């Protein structure tokens, strides 16, 4: 096992800057998830750690050794790809053993390592099958087994579950968590799926356009997003962001549509300032008109079983600010007009509309 250090790393393809000055320390044995939308640079960063892409500037160190010019085979890493990358003509056993044979390990050692990994991943009964005889989840476990037998210092996963159906993804997430607990190997994992990121990560690197928007534990990123991008990307539905201005008494925010939003406390330090008020859908709750902080006009209710997603607009029509609220199913029933809502002080977030950065008030 080894720590990974990413120090002010840049990557450009001609004039296009793909990675823009990312720095991060990954502790020995830590599970870090790099998450962001397609094209944000997360897979490129992972490939740079693996040595499959060159670094334009900055340093990457594994186990204290700078590996900028070290060949991938000499970095003591193992990588699991999105498309499994199995040899179709080889059995499961031979797929898992191939890298060890190339390294010249004796047959008895190869047998020991493959059997141990197969037992860990519940593949022992499948070792003589061909990849075409396996399900998607079994193929992914074979790809993971091929990485495990290497006993690397660092595991690199590039969207390994994206080809699986929803039910299998949940199962494989649980298996990945259990595997990390057993092996304790430093792991960097790339995904665009925020649910995967939240459930797997010990820490998250949220990326946007080649930059690190926020680095932190999943709960920290969720409860205290550093920017409007993080607030809008992490969470489903995303955080409601209401543009407006804090009134003179610091107790209300008026949107561009002249819809008033009452605040649960005075924000005296931001009086007269334009802000974005953030509230997550699950932190809005139905209430009576007297205690309402905002009253959107509801135009659509999405029934999800025990709860419902309620969508509406501040300002009375579709030109207003769009809002979403996750309510208990009984609270959401029969609301096709104005719906009084409230939220607690601790669930209020404020952002600067120009920079997108979080405001502390």
Q: How does this structure look, described?
A:
It is a single chain. This protein has 2 domains: about 5-225, Rossmann fold, CATH 3.40.50.300; about 235-350, no CATH class. The chain is of the alpha+beta class and about 350 residues long. About 25% of the residues lie in helices and about 30% in strands. The mean pLDDT is about 90. Helix 2 runs parallel beside helix 4 (about 135-150). It has a 6-stranded mixed sheet, sandwiched between helices. The chain has a 5-stranded antiparallel sheet with strand order 13-12-11-14-20. A 4-stranded antiparallel sheet has the order 2-1-4-5, with helices on one face.
The CATH homologous superfamily of the largest domain corresponds to: P-loop containing nucleotide triphosphate hydrolases
Number of helical elements: 9
Report the mean per-residue pLDDT as an integer: 90
Report the strand count: 20
Describe the protein's topology:
Elements: E1 4-13, E2 16-26, E3 31-35, H1 42-50, E4 57-62, E5 65-66, E6 77-80, H2 92-102, H3 107-120, H4 136-148, E7 154-158, H5 166-183, E8 186-191, H6 194-200, E9 203-208, E10 211-216, H7 218-223, H8 228-233, E11 240-246, E12 252-254, E13 260-262, E14 274-279, E15 285-286, E16 297-303, E17 307-314, E18 321-328, H9 329-332, E19 341-342, E20 349-351
Parallel strand pairs: 3-8, 3-9, 6-7, 7-8
Antiparallel strand pairs: 1-2, 1-4, 4-5, 9-10, 11-12, 11-14, 12-13, 14-20, 15-19, 16-17, 17-18
